[in-house]
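pinned: reference chain
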Amino acid sequence: MNAANPVPNLAVANVFKRFDPSSDAIPLMLDSPHSGNIYPDDFNHACPRTNILWGEDAFVDELFDHAPGHAAYLLACQFPRTYIDPNRALVDLDANMIEGGWPDPIEVTEKTARGIGLIWRRADDTHEFYDRLLSQAEVRNRIDTYWRPYQAQMDYMADGIFKRWGKRWHINCHSMYSPEYAKVLNNPYTPSTDIILGDRDGTTSGPAFTNAFAEVLRGEGLSVALNDQFKGVELVRKFGDPANDCHSVQIEIDRGIYMDEWEIIKKPGFDALKAALDNALGKLADYIRVEIA
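pinned: its structure tokens
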């Protein structure tokens, strides 16, 4: 967050920062769960740090930090998703990583199998995160100290919005590798557009909001696809309930537009992209004001 934006209304050191609207609020909340870059002292990963930095959605929280100026709420994660991922369910855990297994319920998902569940196992195709088993106490600490507080703040924003307005809109903010970087990682996907919006095939948002979001982005000169490779994971699933007028959409932005993925530094295109997203948020806020009028 830069100095031109408001100070957080609430911050828990190394866990999250919450920014509330700077003007009359509307029922719109954004969160950036994967932009955290404060690495806990007890991470103790065996692979080099440079091999896991790609896991960060670097600068995504900054791309959207004008949201409070558009009367929206914003939550920015501070810890890295590679330590524990706030966009995963508690059951999405690999018990084979834990000494003595895990006593709580587990549901193996596609993310778990790929080594990127609640607690990541694989740094890339050739590097494992750990050369040891994690203790149950380590995992509990990550859940209780980091995962639960982030989830609690999401619940706080979501419940407060719904109680006040009886409806809610949510944008879950992410970035995706550029095609060039994906090739280096031998990753199976290649982004086809600047932005991919995901609503889990229409199950987490009504089509009106998803399409309105896509159109305001296209109006800023950005190419947009819907549910192409990225459809949304835990947070849009949790907060999207279109039958009850709660709409949740994930946005994935091609990192190659705004950052050097090898050096993890902003490119000259960062400011232009941020301005475009700022304009798009303003138009989306106007759309929501019409919906609640």
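why pinned: The mean pLDDT is 93. The longest helix spans residues 136-165.
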